[in-house]
Structure formats: C-alpha cells, structure tokens
Design goal:
Elements: H1 3-6, H2 8-37, H3 43-54, E1 58-59, E2 62-66, E3 71-76, H4 81-84, E4 92-96, E5 99-100, H5 106-119, E6 122-129, E7 132-139, E8 141-142, H6 145-160
Antiparallel strand pairs: 1-8, 2-3, 3-4, 4-5, 4-6, 6-7
C-alpha cells in the first residue's frame, strides 16, 4: 500500500486541498460571469451618456441576423417604424435605398442606415417574403423619451444590477 493511504493526516490534507480547489474554481467562475455583466462606469454617468447618445437619433426597430446570403429580420420592435411599415420576422433584406444587401453584413446595414439618417429619414427596402419580393417604405423616427428610459433601465439592470431604479435625467 502507498504511504499516503496509511497516513490519515495525509488523506485529510488531500481532501481539504481538493475541496479548496473546487471552491476556488466555483468562485472564479462566478466572478468571471459577474465581471462580464458589470459596467465600470458609474450608473448616473451611464444613464446620462445613453440619454445623450440616443436623443434625436433615428431608428428603424429591427433586429437582424446574419444569414448566407444576406440579412434576415429576426425580430421587430412593437410600434416601431419597421412595425408600422409592415416589416415581418423572417423577411430577407435584399436592398436598402438602392444598396444591395444580399452579401452585406449587419455592420454594412447599420452604415447604410447612418448615411440615410444624416440626410433624410425615408428608406425604401426590397425584402423577400415567402419567395415573393416586396417594396417597403419606412420613415425612420427618433427614439421617444419612453424608449430611451426603457433602454437606460435595461442597461442599469443588466450591467449595474439596479432593478427599475432609473436615475433622474439631467436637464
């Protein structure tokens, strides 16, 4: 037999060492998970920056996913410009204001929207829905104050662990 098997103190030290390693592993995993969710900027400053960034900014109200080829509408924000224009989940975006998007990335799409937003609010989109092509006219709109406050609240809840406590907006 091994010497360690005969020595009860050695067995106890081995068990303690293993238990310590397991506890440290769990603690490190929990800390790493928390670190991913945390924002290092103070909550009031985050809220101020988000409000400043979104005030007056135009939006469409779609969540896209990268597909081969092109982009597919994954979801639509209720009561958004996209919703009012009758865009639907599953629409494949073929073109936006004359720019082909069949091989575009989401970053390319956002760049097109930013360019359009600098000069006007109107978008026309060619989408493919159930094999048929449809032209959709959309007027991008600025975020409403209520939408901005929901975005601020979501960030504070997810990144700062502050549930439904939104700091008062600064004038």
């Amino acid at each position: 037999m091994l010497a360690s098997a005969k020595d009860p103190d050695q067995k106890m030290r081995s068990r303690i060492l293993i238990m310590t390693a397991v506890v440290v592993s769990f603690a490190a995993a929990a800390f790493a998970d928390d670190a991913k969710k945390k924002c290092t900027t103070p909550p009031d400053e985050c809220a101020r920056q988000i409000r400043q960034m979104l005030t007056g900014r135009l939006y469409l109200g779609v969540l896209l996913e990268q597909a081969v080829p092109g982009l597919i509408v994954k979801s639509i924000v209720p009561e958004s410009p996209a919703d009012h224009a009758d865009m639907r989940t599953g629409d494949r975006v073929i073109a936006v204001n004359g720019h082909r998007t069949t091989e575009a990335t989401i970053k390319d799409f956002k760049q097109i929207l930013d360019e359009v937003g600098k000069t006007h609010r109107h978008l026309w989109m060619l989408v493919q829905r159930r094999g048929a092509f449809r032209k959709i006219d959309v007027m991008m709109e600025p975020y409403s104050r209520a939408q901005i406050e929901r975005i601020v609240a979501q960030h504070l809840a997810e990144a700062h662990s502050i549930a439904s406590a939104v700091p008062d907006p600064q004038p």
